[in-house]
Amino acid sequence: MRNPYTEIFKAPGAKAFSAAGFVARLPLSMITLGIVTMLSETHGEYWLAGAVAATFAFSNALIAPQVSRLVDRYGQSRILIPGTIAAVAALSGLMLSTHYGAPNWALFVFAVMAGTMPSMSAMVRARWTELYRNTPKLHTAFAFESIADEMIFIAGPIVSIGLSVGVFPEAGPLVATVLLAIGNLLFAAQKSTEPPVHAQDRGGGASVIRLPSMQILVLTLMAIGAIFGTSEVTAVAFAEAQGDKGAAGLTLAAYAAGSLIAGVAFGALKLKLPLARQLLITIALAALTTLPLLMVTSIPTMAVVLFIAGIAVSPTIITSMALVEQLVPSSKLTEGMTWAITGISIGLALGSSASGWIIDELGAADGFLVSLGAGFAALAITFLGQGTLQRSTRTVATPVPAT
Questions:
Q1: What is the SS3 assignment for 142?
Q2: How far apart are CA 133 and CA 403, in angstroms?
Q3: 39-62 burial, b for 16+ CB within 10 Å, e for fewer?
Q4: Is-contact 349 57, C-beta < 8 A?
Q5: What is the pTM of this model?
Q6: Residue 386's closest CA among 281, 287, 290, 311?
Q7: Per-residue pLDDT tens for 139-173?
Q8: Are 294 and 368 a contacting pair, CB within 8 Å?
Q9: Which residues have a Cβ under 8 Å from the Cβ of 1 and sit 6 or more positions away?
Q10: What is residue 203's DSSP assignment?
Q11: Disulfide check for 138: which of 11, 132, 169, 234 has CB 3.0–4.6 Å away?
C-alpha cells in the first residue's frame, strides 16, 4: 500500500517549500508563550504577561488577513519580505523594552507593531492547494501540515520556556525572532511553487469575512483558539505553582503530541461525510475533552489531560482548512485561510487574557475554566451554523476525481 504522505512530495518543489515553511512557522509556537514566560520572569505578574501576549495575538489576528489580501493581489514573495522585516523590528523592540525596564505601555506598543507577522500557515497551505486542488491529495497535504504544526508545538514550548527560564528571560523570543527571519527568507526564495496572482485580485473586492459561512467558521475557531490560549498560560502558571516552571513546556508538548497522533490517523482516512458534519463532530470532541482539565492536581495529571484534549485539535484544523477551500473563491484563498487562523489567534488572545486574570484572582488550576466555557461555546456555534455551512459547501463543492 502506498504511503499517502510520501505521494504528496513527488511534486517538484514540494519538499523545499514545506521545509522552509516549517522553519518559518516555528515561531508560532514560541513567540506568544515566549512573551508570557519572559514577562512573568522579569515582571512577576501574569496579568501583564497574558495581556501583552494577547495584544500581540490580537494585533496579528487583525493585521494578518490584510497582509494576506495583499498576498493574493501581488504575490507571496513581494509582500512576505516587508511584513517580516516589520515584525522582526517590532519583536526586537519588545525584547529591548523588557530588558531595559521600559514602561509597560512600550511593551504593548511593540506587541501591536509585531502583528505585521505574515501568516505562514496560510501561505504554505495555499501552495499545497495550488498543487492538488480538487484531488484527495489535498486532504493528505492539509493533514501533513497539521502534523507539522503539532511537531512545532511539541518542540516550540520546550525550547521557548527552557531558554527563557534557563538562559535569560528574552532568550525564547530572541530565538523565535531569528527563526522567523531565516524561515521567511527561505520560503520567499521558493519561486517555482508560488501560487500565481489572479488578474481579478488586483481590483480588490469585498473581504471573504463578509460571507456568513466564513463568519460561522471564524467564530467557532475563536472559541477553539481560546482553549489553546488558556492552556498555554495556565500550564505555565500551574507548573510554577508546583515549583517546576520549566515542566510547562513538557505538558504543552503532550498536548501537541495528542494532536499529532490524531492528525496522522485522520489524514489517512478517506471520509465521505460532509465537511460541515465532520466539523461538528470534531468540535463536539474538543468540547468534551475540556472536562478532564478541571481534574488537574499535579504536573503529571496535567500532561495526561492535555494529551487527551489534544486529540481533537488536528482533526478540527484539517477540517476547517478544507472547509475554507470550499467556501471562498480560489483567488482569495490565502485571505480565507488567514481569517481561519485569525479566528484561532483572536481566541488565543482572549483565552490568554481571561485565564491570566482568573489565575491571579483564583489560582493556577482555575484558568482551565475558560477552556471549558470556550469548548461548549464552539459546539453551540457550530451546531447552530450547520445549515449555513452545509448550504455553502453544497453550492461551491466540486466533484473529487478518483486517483
A1: helix
A2: 13
A3: bbbbbeebebbbbbbbbbbbbbbe
A4: yes
A5: 0.72
A6: 281
A7: 788 888 877 877 777 777 778 878 887 788 888 88
A8: yes
A9: none
A10: G
A11: 132
